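Protein modeling request. Please complete all fields; requests missing the sequence field cannot be processed.
Requester role: graduate student
Desired output: 3D structure, token encoding
Chains: 1
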Amino acid sequence: MVLGADADEPLPGIEAIRDVMDLRFASDAPSLIAVLPGAEALFLWRAPRGQLEDAWDAAGDLEWIHTASAGVDTVLFPRLIDSDVVVTNARGIYDPAIAEWAIGAMLAFATGIHRSIVDQQHRRWTSGRTTERLAGSHVLVVGPGPIGRGTGTRALALGMHVTMMGRTSRPDDTFGAIVASDRLVEVIGEADFVLDALPLTESTRSMFDARAFAAMKPSARFLNVGRGATVDEGALIDALTSGSIAGAALDVFETEPLPDDSSLWTMPSVIVSPHISGDARGWERDVVDLFVRNARRWIEGEPMVNLVDKRAGHGASEPGDTSTE
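Delivered output (325 residues):
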């Protein structure tokens, strides 16, 4: 079963699996319920929150779900978590592009390019402005998964100081140590940039709240490439409005698309990106190719990649991988 696609407009590369699998397609909830019975594997190409849960009674034969997203908060629900159905995700496909987006956002703030674009539109020649250097500045990366680590290694290459924060403290070969997230308010004030690369779980929901923003430097900028609900958006807006922090670059939001009446649209210190930081050209084919490879592993009874820890709410570590969230 492929949810969120149409047989008349096949996904790029999906035909490669037809030699070993029968493919069915569902573009919406009614068609999903109609064709889900008998399906053993489900590829969630586009799946609005709640759609699979509503159809779950028809999923009695389901053994494996693969989602085209890296985050799984919109996929998981109690009956799926309690079931024996294996879940895998698209971990690794989007990570390099998102890490480059995060570096680009920090460069935009440091160089003032985002302001220059606005000035150009108004034909304003704002000479006399100074820029900043990323080299020597300090970034706190919250979420030491592939996106956080990818951003951190790129930041190191630019001469930045990197603090990596995760659920628990532990040594790390690249960054020296992972700092425990219960020290967020204590550590966040040291950073010039704060990157939220968190998955959405019960423990990360609204982790960045008024207390966290109040502890940041007034000159610091906040970046979010994780999940919108890991941030108390009202507290973020208050911090930006009061000048408690200097700016924000946001690719994810509590409500998407970002509502027209959100004040984030018009704040000069805010960069709004429509949840596309990972969508590098060709990502669709890469995601399908990953599904096809995993499908062949599943059919042959081989270990699959990108397994999801359903109860933890994020990707499980692969063999040899110590970059847990």
